Amino acid sequence: MQLDVDIEDWPSGQWEALAERAAHAAGEGEPLLANARLIVSLLFTSDAEVHVLNREWRDRDKPTNVLSFPMLESAELAELAPDGPPVMLGDIALAHETCAREAAEKGIALEHHAAHLIVHGLLHLAGHDHVDSDAQAEEMEALETAILAKLGIADPYGE
């Protein structure tokens, strides 16, 4: 998968490299994400921008840590041949202030929390969800935990 990374309103850091590592690990953990034809747009931005996106596209008038906007159905993704032109999988946006606050509350590095949220967003783009049932949530959390372990990041759902 290819990433198109745009960084605005985040502190200086190795965010693009972090995103590349997270995407690579996600492709190892979820084969649907390993297709080299896929393109994902990843925006590191502010709470204010994510608030606008959340209100406009999700009818939720508040910021959130991560938003994902899939452009393919999971069946289309599963049928995507490995050869051919690039295909846009979707967009992900991370809100700096919310991510930083959550990382501080959890006592973890912002980089680790951002990697987790990138993986979380990518899994949403691949068709995974955690809203409709506890079983879905448990499956997605287990996949996230396994992918993050490849990056040397502790289980974000552990005690």
Model description:
By secondary structure, the chain is of the alpha/beta class. It has a single domain, classed as Collagenase (Catalytic Domain) (3-Layer(aba) Sandwich), CATH 3.40.390. The protein has helices at 15-29, 47-58, 74-79, 96-106, 110-125, 134-150, and strands at 2-7, 38-45, 66-70, 87-95. A four-stranded mixed β-sheet has the order 1-2-4-3, with helices on both faces. Strand 1, helix 1 and strand 2 (38-45) form a beta-alpha-beta unit. Helix 1 (15-29) crosses helix 5 and helix 1 packs across helix 6. The longest helix has 17 residues, at 134-150. The protein is globular, with a radius of gyration of 15 Å.
Topology at a glance:
Blueprint: E1 2-7, H1 15-29, E2 38-45, H2 47-58, E3 66-70, H3 74-79, E4 87-95, H4 96-106, H5 110-125, H6 134-150
Parallel strand pairs: 1-2, 2-4
Antiparallel strand pairs: 3-4
Descriptive tags:
159 residues; alpha/beta; Collagenase (Catalytic Domain); four-stranded mixed beta sheet; 6 helices; globular
Question: What would a concise description of this structure say?
Answer:
With about 160 residues, the protein is an alpha/beta fold. The chain has helices at about 15-30, 45-60, 75-80, 95-105, 110-125, 135-150, and strands at about 1-5, 40-45, 65-70, 85-95. It is built from 6 helices and 4 strands.
